[in-house]
Amino acid sequence: MSAIRTAVDEERFVVAERLRRKLQSLGTPAFCPEESEAGSVGPALLCPIGPDDWALAAEAAAAQGCRWAAGWGDSQGESWVVNALLEKSGDYLLLRTVLPPGRNDLPSQTPHFPGAARPERHARDLLGLDFTGHPDGRRWIRHQAWGEREFPLRPDFPLAGHPLAVTAPDRGYGFASAHGPEVNEIPVGPVHAGIIEPGHFRFLAVGETVLNLEERLGYVHKGIEKLAEGRDPESLARLAGRVSGDTAVGHAWAACQAMERAAGVEPPERALWLRASFAERERIANHLNDIGAICNDTAFAFGYYQFSRLRELWLRDNLRWFGHRLLMDRIVPGGVAVDLPEEAASGMPAAIAALRRELDELKPILDEGTIFQDRVVGAGVLPERIVRELGCLGYVARACGIGRDVRERAPHAPYDRLGVKAVVRGDGDVAARLYVRYGELLASLDILEECLRRIEPGPLRTDWHDPSEHAEGLGLVEGWRGEIATYVRFDGTGHVARFFPRDPSVFNWPALEKLILGNIVPDFPLCNKSVNGSYSGHDL
Amino acid sequence: MNKLLSKIARVGIVTETFKPLTDPELDRLGAELKATIDGRFAGSLAIRQVDAGSCNACELEIAALGNPFYDIERYGVHFVASPRHADVLMVTGPVSRHMQAALRATWEATPEPKWVVAVGTCAADGGEFGVNYASCGAVGNVLAVDAVIPGCPPTPADLVRGLLSLISR
Ligand code: SF4
């Protein structure tokens, strides 16, 4: 850090100092997205800075205790527009810099925000941006599907690319290594042994104990950001719902929120309550799934059967009432695609009560399962310090005592009327991540009941109108894994020019590399399941 | 322990026959499935599932086949960890270009005779992602496919039906 400071001239330091003061002055305890000379994007205050101050701004923001929430580049005309989203206490600030034509380098923010490491590598691989001072020069999302000097998100790169008939497997990735008579290197994947997504893990172990874990992701990169370009809002919502299939509601909501903010379209009241109902139903289904899967990974078959049974019943209700088990394509620009049928309005309270009763009954069985407890308590402990460094989200952060939850800290409609309290525990182990989910199941059932009580008759959808050229919006939604941040910019014809969905997994995946250290290799599936990062949502 | 036992006793067996979910032919197909599996695969059909680029929703529904409602194992169908133990590769997703080689390698590691089942709209025709710089699209663009089970994602009932019809043909 000091090296960076000595390398900058006085003038640049003055700019950073001004930013630091700005960050400080913008309300207590944090900066407030109120009126600013620079304007705003969605709920975030926009803060334009020069490219040479990019690292200093990060340094100042880090010193202020900000969280680095997302970063993405956007090619506009001859120039690059680079964005970094910061958050503190529920207030968001969007740092933005414009690189002059011909320039593609700017200082890395990773030295100040370790969580920025992979997103910057992602932008480097897809856009050809050069983050100087980045500690890791290895490619990340780019394996072999496109050339070293080809950048798929540049405007001159065709969607179809220039693929060879057969894409060579990834090679030459410089994994960390260690040598010694006792050290074993264990490569796993990309094809895994279960019904799960593909990725590669490289363990270094001494005996059974994990010395180091390195993740190699990017295997399910399928061009989502490029595919979004030129889509109409309806079709973008469909794509967003497939960024990570287990978060169909969360990603579609964030994308629609971003588009609606860009277009100045307000979804009707009834649609908001339905959106929240869908989001909570999605949270419940996934938490039930994960709790069952955690039980399964400890060979507690009883738990697996019970929770997978409850989840199945829940999904069948989704299908019966809303037409899709996973609620895909139910959230659309300007509102929702399906109504709350009479059958659901009358049947849901009983289904909620039944699930709550079963959960109350199962909780002591988990608590008293000594073999189960023996596996989950103390396994995969994540230190709170790492959560802050990496900007971890959702239940991963909340299990370490950090109550990050968009629904509480930056509540959007209708959560602004619900007073959601984040469920927090402190131990940071597999058990804590499990019990945070358990608490959230019960809390979500309460929210669902509240939604049912408050929902009034009314329209489901507001008419869409095309936003102006360069209209942009930011969507921020608490998905079941944590905060989803989605950026959308429109072109002049009502079509999407840039779509960047940031799944919470981006910051939780690196945490897995840390929390596994010192655990035994056979506990990896359990630790991994307790984090349950999305590969598809990460790889895009 | 008492709580656990009483919960087990009260929940009972929830495994379903598929009558309410599908056509009356299903019982016949189920019997045929069992007979085919017994005859050709020595009593069990081993499936290796490969996610070649899916959004993960197809995986959720395939995994649901193991829940007590569907309990796919009662047909003699089970999911295995290695392609070397598999009779069937069940492939999801548009095949991402980064998974193309791994999918081929998995297929090559699977002993003959083997079937490839493409599961989900993406695997069937590329779905929402199609063919692009990062995606090969349909599984059929990479491997010869023996059966397709479409749906985005297919429901577990669709999957049971699709498997039964593959095996009983
Ligand atoms: S078919 Fe649908 S659910 Fe399956 S991978 Fe494709 S988008 Fe996801």
Features of this protein?
heterodimer; A: 540 residues; alpha+beta; three-stranded antiparallel beta sheet; 41% helix; 17% strand; disordered N terminus; B: 169 residues; five-stranded parallel beta sheet; globular; binds iron/sulfur cluster
Would you kindly provide a written description of the structure presented here, covering whatever features stand out?
The complex is a heterodimer of chains A (540) and B (169). Chain A is an alpha+beta fold and 540 residues long. Chain A has helices spanning 2-7, 10-25, 54-63, 117-127, 224-228, 233-240, 248-263, 269-297, 301-322, 342-368, 370-376, 384-390, 394-398, 406-409, 430-454, 505-515, 524-531, 535-539; strands at residues 40-41, 44-48, 67-76, 79-88, 91-99, 105-107, 130-132, 183-188, 200-206, 209-216, 331-332, 335-336, 472-479, 482-490, 496-502. In chain A, helix 7 (248-263) packs antiparallel against helix 8, helix 8 packs antiparallel against helix 17 and helix 15 (430-454) packs parallel to helix 17. Chain A is globular. Chain A starts with a helix and ends with a helix. The model of chain A is unreliable at 1-9 and 27-36 (pLDDT under 50). By secondary structure, chain B is of the alpha/beta class. Chain B is built from six helices and five strands. In chain B, strands 2-1-3-4-5 form a five-stranded parallel sheet, sandwiched between helices. In chain B, helix 2 packs across helix 6 (156-167). Bound molecules: iron/sulfur cluster (SF4). Residues 54-55, 57-58, 92-93, 120-122, 127-128, 152-153 of chain B line the site of iron/sulfur cluster (SF4).
